[in-house]
């Protein structure tokens, strides 16, 4: 793989990675948000695989495969199960509540404003990453701002969305961004650390899934605003 | 060389004027077929125009020069844009002046003229349509300018011919993240600018949903013919511009009659294909609520911003 093709493919993968994060902010249907997240997992795996191919490290390719399986396969599958559990299904009766459950109806910041904020966050990421890029301007480090922008957009999603599932996606965006930063800045962390992080994320999502189910059982919805009793005083 | 270049400009303008109603006819036909109707003939828009042109010119009481000047102004600005944009050839006598910002400004002039005419009639619909049209135009403008900025960065010039020639010589540029994002942002902007679904429904006459139709409501006879022709020409020119920027293959860079003829055929095919694809997509789209339109346009603005940042940072200074 020669230089220009590698740069081109890496740029494309990073562009898709950022675009998926933006799509999460743009979309309202939770199913579409989960799909965008799965697409981002594929892009992240592609970034890792490209770096692995470039440096001829089999270990990085294995990590790429693992990242792809976890973030484009397992995690979206878990989230779809949570969504499916909240569908009207056979029960009927609870129709009105479930409609509001399938979409992010009223985020704290409206969609147009959050898209503009995403633009500002991207600029911020570029501004912050400039000194880092200047240290060693290779194609991979030059894409570093993209990963930082995804971290910031993930934070933003986490803060402004009301549905528990949308917040989970925000948390995972944040994690995707951190992983991408590791890949782009240092060609990945040691395998054992990567494994630990991946299992951590999986465990967190499992716990959040159970928490969401319990929340629905207790309140009939996953609007975080209803959780007044749990507030820290 | 000059003779062929002038011929290319003339061919471009003629093709746009003659082809625009036919393109609308093709799009309506595709839509009708997909909906299970037979649909009118492809030449029907031309017959409508002929019928309207034969009628007597009527202007509503109390309207002033803004109302009368709007239809010719709309057609004239679009014709100038059709001459400037490198649809067929990149080496024409006017190609040095084919600045993308000038093109956007000319299109904006046409929009403003029609909106002023809508205001001038003094009817409720005209004013409402004008206000909506200006809202959309104000949101589209920054998107187009940013997308243009992203496209012009690798070339170092906002000259359209230079951008298209650069794309022809360096196809990698078209597939870069910046190029793709800018093309996507431009596509949304073109949809909004020409009043197609999902921003506006060109087939409706329902007062609550229309944007462009509301401003054109009071026109009759030859004026209405000009407004319709102008709208169709805008769609054709913008689709052609999108095709030239995203897939410049086939555009003549030399001044031989053969290359020119080939470029004309390729342009017709590209625009017809884009139009048919748009019509097919419109069957599956619903019109967005007016209050959701800013969301869509903010999204395309973000795409344009990302295109600029990507072209500046990713590919290196």
Architecture blueprint of SSEs:
The complex is a heterodimer of chains A (233) and B (317).
Chain A: H1 3-26, H2 30-55, H3 58-86, H4 95-101, H5 111-135, H6 139-142, H7 144-160, H8 164-186, H9 191-219
Helix pairs in contact in A: 1-2, 1-7, 2-3, 2-8, 3-9, 5-7, 7-8, 8-9
Chain B: H1 2-34, H2 44-54, H3 65-84, H4 100-120, H5 124-155, H6 160-169, H7 172-175, H8 177-193, H9 212-215, H10 221-246, H11 257-284, H12 293-314
Helix pairs in contact in B: 1-3, 1-10, 1-11, 2-10, 3-4, 3-10, 4-5, 5-6, 5-8, 5-12, 8-10, 8-12, 10-11
Main location (chain B): membrane
Subcellular location (chain B): Membrane
Transmembrane segments (chain B): 6-27, 100-122, 134-154, 174-192, 235-252, 258-284, 296-314
Task: Please provide a written account of the structure.
Chain A: Keywords: Cell membrane, Membrane, Oxidoreductase, Transmembrane, Transmembrane helix. Chain A: It is an enzyme of class 1 (oxidoreductase). Chain A: It is found in: Cell membrane. Chain A: It comes from Streptomyces eurocidicus. Chain A: InterPro entries: HyfE-like (IPR038730). Chain B: It holds the Pfam family NADHdh. The complex is a heterodimer of chains A (233) and B (317). Chain A has 233 residues and is mostly helical. Chain A has one domain (3-226). Chain A is 79% helix and 0% strand. In chain A, α1 (3-26) packs antiparallel against α2, α2 (30-55) runs antiparallel to α3 and α5 packs antiparallel against α7. Chain A is globular, with a radius of gyration of 19 Å. Chain A starts with a helix and ends in a 14-residue tail after the last helix. The model of chain A is unreliable at 90-99 (pLDDT under 50). By secondary structure, chain B is mostly helical. Chain B has one domain (2-314). Chain B is 72% helix and 0% strand. Chain B contains twelve helices and no strands. The longest helix of chain B has 33 residues, at 2-34. Chain B starts with a helix and ends with a helix. The model of chain B has no long low-confidence stretch (mean pLDDT 85). At the A-B interface, α1 and α5 of A face α8 and α12 of B.
